[in-house]
Each structure stands twice: as C-alpha cells, then as structure tokens.
Design goal:
This protein has 194 residues and is of the alpha/beta class. It is built from six helices and seven strands, in the order E-H-E-E-E-H-E-E-H-E-H-H-H.
C-alpha cells in the first residue's frame, strides 16, 4: 500500500475569513485540490477533506481544511491523522508566517511554534512538534497595527496581485516536499527568486 500524507491548510472557517492573511494555508490546499480536479467533502473529524495522489502511482495525499477556528486546529488534525493512520512525520501543516516577508516560502520540520497558535495547538494535539511545515510569509503589519488584526485582514491590493503566484509556489513546495524530501524542497524554495 502506498504511503499516505496528510496536508492540512490552517485557517478560520466561514466566507468572511476566506481571503484573509491567516487563511493562506487553506488557499494553498485549495490550489492542490484544484490541480487534481478534486472537491472537498465533510469528514467526521470536523474537517473537509479531498483524497488524491501526488501523481499516478505516487503517494496518497489527504488534503484537509479544519472546520475549527485557527487556535483550536489540533483536534481535527489529530483526528484525521488517527483516521488515516498518518504519523506526524507525514502531516504537512501549511500556515501563514508573520516573521517571513510576504511572497516568501520557508519549510522546516519541528522546532517552536513562533507564537502561531494554530501550530501550537497542532503540536499539542499530535503530542510532538516534529511535523513538516510549509510556512507562507505574510510579513509584519506596518506601523503600529496589531498583529492579531493584521492576520485577520484581507490581503491588500498590491499583495492580491502577487497572491496567486505565492499560493502556486507554496503548492509546488508541498508537492516537492512529499515527492523529493525536505532538503530538496528547501533548496528550491529558500533560494532567492531569479
């Protein structure tokens, strides 16, 4: 049986949050589903899932979007990991990252949560921080704007123009991480753009 990977896009539920910075992880998972013409279906683990493959004959991928709010993402993620029999090393969490400039992608496995409450809750629910992460840079807010307000704001006009390419690049990073491993994906996506 082919190995299974769980790819979770973190975000908040509801149309009012769809295009906010905090939901960029879900936009990436949407892109991965769209590339495979897959639709999301309700799952009993309080999430929407789409089951697919990296490529024909390749690893199985379960794309998931928790129905919970960001700060309590851990329950749905742990429930899906248990349901599909996926170890934390194969749970890829895609999330927004304040400490990375907009239009930048970084990948890592393990480490701290960097103040990201969704990542913190997933690590707690899985019982380990040792899971791969695709961190999509949204940058810090300008001036004195509170970070909590910034992440819940929609992308600005200039960022919206670059957003489709950023989401596509992050989806590429997920595919490369699963297909070729973390180091290969880091070498591709951590390099400055030509």
């Amino acid at each position: 049986m082919a190995e299974t990977w769980l790819v979770v896009g973190l975000g908040n539920p509801g149309p009012q949050y769809e295009l906010t910075r905090h939901n960029v992880g879900q936009l990436v998972v949407d892109e991965l589903a769209a590339r495979r013409s897959e639709k999301f279906k309700a799952h009993r683990a309080n999430a929407r899932v789409a089951e697919t493959w990296l490529r024909p004959g390749g690893p199985k991928i379960v794309l998931a979007k928790p129905n919970s709010f960001m700060n309590v993402s851990g329950g749905p993620v742990a429930g899906l990991a248990a349901f599909y029999g996926v170890e934390p090393a194969h749970v890829v969490v895609v999330h927004d990252e304040l400490d990375i400039p907009f239009d930048t992608i970084k990948l890592k496995t393990g480490g701290g949560h960097g103040g990201h409450n969704g990542v913190r809750d997933v690590a707690k629910a899985l019982g380990t921080p040792e899971f791969p992460r695709v961190r999509v840079g949204i940058g810090r807010p300008p001036g004195r704007q509170d970070a909590a307000d910034w992440v819940l704001d929609p992308f600005g006009a200039a960022d919206r123009k670059a957003l489709p390419l950023l989401v596509s690049d992050a989806a590429d990073a997920v595919e490369q991480l699963i297909g070729e491993g973390l180091l290969a994906a880091q070498q591709t996506h951590h390099a400055p753009r030509a």
